[in-house]
Automatic annotation (TrEMBL):
GO terms for biological process: anaerobic respiration. Its cofactor is [4Fe-4S] cluster; [3Fe-4S] cluster. This is hydrogenase (acceptor). The keyword Oxidoreductase applies. It is found in: Cell envelope. Its EC number is 1.12.99.6. The keyword Signal applies. PANTHER family: HYDROGENASE-2 SMALL CHAIN, NIFE / NIFESE HYDROGENASE SMALL SUBUNIT FAMILY MEMBER. It is an enzyme of class 1 (oxidoreductase). InterPro entries: Cytochrome-c3_hydrogenase_C (IPR027394), NADH_UbQ_OxRdtase-like_20kDa (IPR006137), NiFe-Hase_small_C_sf (IPR037148), NiFe_Hase_small_N_sf (IPR037024), NiFe_hydrogenase_ssu (IPR001821), TAT_signal (IPR006311), TAT_signal_bac_arc (IPR019546). It catalyses: H2 + A = AH2. Keywords: 3Fe-4S, 4Fe-4S, Iron, Iron-sulfur, Metal-binding, Oxidoreductase, Signal. It comes from Sedimenticola thiotaurini. Belongs to the [NiFe]/[NiFeSe] hydrogenase small subunit family.
Amino acid sequence: MADKSTLGDSLRRHGVSRRGFLKFCTATASLMALPPTMVPAIAQALEKARRPSVIWLSFQECTGCTESLTRSHSPSVESLIFDHISLDYHHTLQAAAGDAAEAAREAAMHENKGKYILVVDGSIPLGDPGYSTIAGISNLQMLEETAKDAAAIIAVGTCAAFGGLPQANPNPTGAVSVADIITDKPIINVSGCPPIPTVITGVLAHFLTFGSIPELDQYNRPKVFYGQSIHDRCYRRPFYDKGLFAETFDDEGAKAGWCLYKLGCKGPMTYNACATTKWNQGTSWPVESGHGCLGCSEPRFWDAGGFYNALSVPISDNSQTVAFAGAAGLALGAAAAGINFKEKDAAQKAHETVTIDDLEKSS
């Protein structure tokens, strides 16, 4: 259970030096996309922060969200943070089972009433309470009971945030998201299938540091991680701007690393931090490995049409202008560059803003 020691006390007990603590604060600032000038404030806040109790509930899900979290490399900011919260209940990770496990959940709720963080992964079936139960308790009942006295709720993964795969047509269980049921508590959606582990821990770090939830977007996702599209952060974006696209997964364009837009990449309408945070110790991410983004952090991504159908076709092929500029020589170079810049600027202004509604268009 959560004790009354501060995070600073806990770090010292684990042999973390002052220098190590400041390095941790610097990493935390980076994790939350804050400037280095915030490090002293973060250090002061974390020194006095109490270890929060965290209750993690898993409903209709595949365990991928927990797998993602536990696959984070060690030592890491993630493990450090999780060493210093009190994870009082987690179906998959806890040793206790049955009545003992439920007793632990109830004790954590009672001892930390109004202060604990509730993390939920998986959707909740409303078609029949018997579709998914834990210790004889329906998912709906357990969520309502546990959310009642939570300080904040983090919906981890697209299933908890938006219904996800269980909600895909024909939605046989009547699956809904956490926000469809709980309407009187702050909910932070950390969407993704699965979500990036550093995003999960980044949200926890923000709550630890400031005692509040981070700024959220229209889907209640932290703007610091979901504020820009995959497309805008993608290292292949310059190829898109030049009109250079892979036409198949094994053509010369694909081998050269050209844009995967025509192969169905949903990067333009997907907001997530994959392109910058990456996976597996920052090694790579789907687009870097040669596959387009599936849009898994967006609502209803599973029913949005074929994964390999392009959203739309760019309105201008800037590559023709670039080729013209090269052939014109030095005398016309400046003028051609100006034309190219003008066309590129016009193309950027004319690009439609791709929204989730575009996914509902028939391909």
